[in-house]
Amino acid sequence: MKRAFYFLLIFAAVLFISGSCKEEAKKSVSTAPVTFTKEGTLSVYRAESDSLLAALDIEIAESDYETQTGLMYRESMEENQGMLFIFPEEAYHSFYMKNTRFPLDIIYIDKDLMVTSIVKDAQPMNEAGLPSENPVMYVLEVNAGLADRWQLEKGDKIVFQRLNSN
Known about the structure:
36% strand; two-stranded antiparallel ribbon; Jelly Rolls; 9 strands; alpha+beta; 7-stranded mixed beta sheet
């Protein structure tokens, strides 16, 4: 008799627990696409002649969150746009293409605003490290192929200006 009582008690508890675990409807989570926000302008100049190679609108990545996410989750970027990463001090930096959906040229720039190395055609979603060759304070990401189109070389210079944030 005791066995039957315990069996019924356990059975009732299982029924109670399973009845209280309602299946929730699956929610479809959709996020708005990440879009470009113009935060400044940037010009690229040939070192020897100071001739203008390119002029870009830039988004600036400066906080820890911004520098860690960069261009992740974006579908594309216009040819006249780029993302400038600004670090608090010059150091070796390595980038990867995790969750980045389009190929990039990654341009490493020292504290004097001089190009020190270029990684061309970094492939989407690749998690391999793409390190700077020297300590840098800035990194510019642009669409793949632009460094070749501009004939960008080590030693070329950049100048950037932030938009007024009034």
